[in-house]
Amino acid sequence: MELVTADPRLRLRTLDMADVEDYWRLVEHNRDHLGRHGDYAELRAADREMIRAGFAHPLDGEFALGIRVDGDLVGEMVLTPVDPPRYSLGYWLDEKAVGNGYATNAGRALLMWARENTGITDVYAGVTFGNRPSIAVLDRLGFTEVSDQDTYTRYRLSLREPS
Ligand SMILES: CC(C)(COP(=O)(O)OP(=O)(O)OC[C@H]1O[C@@H](n2cnc3c(N)ncnc32)[C@H](O)[C@@H]1OP(=O)(O)O)[C@@H](O)C(=O)NCCC(=O)NCCS
Question: Quick check: CB of 30 below 6 Å from ligand 1?
Fold first, then answer.
């Protein structure tokens, strides 16, 4: 699957085995960035073989897409079935790629695709307290706060109510 976005340089494409090396390099370059708010412990701890195994056995029903600028992998956006038809949204960008609206534009394209092509009813996102850039992305995508948990705030977007 490949999705275009409002930014002509920016596309989303399903991650597959051909992307393992690029993805691994991106994770290696972004360990500190990904952990700045205490998130992504599993991904940051993964070695190349664990990443490869994850790509080889994707979670049933998950949509994992690479965020690409002019074809280059700069991040990831994932819709994960938590309690289908309720999904969660996760995303991260290469530290060098932040500040360009890529996460927002990728999110708009993916959520529009999901609204039109899947039975997903609700999308949730958990944001660790203090992760302002991520909260700003969710605000721009139309998510609203639903509850505070121990270390994070849960956000929700309905794909079935008119936005
Ligand atoms: C969360 C994360 C993806 C947000 O990245 P981001 O670049 O700030 O978000 P966007 O790509 O939507 O870009 C928004 C920024 O680009 C600017 N921008 C430029 N062109 C834009 C456009 N066309 N549309 C929207 N914003 C644009 C915005 O003004 C904003 O800048 P600001 O931060 O100075 O206000 C990034 O910080 C990250 O990877 N963090 C580590 C992983 C993480 O925390 N993931 C989320 C877990 S819940």
Answer: no
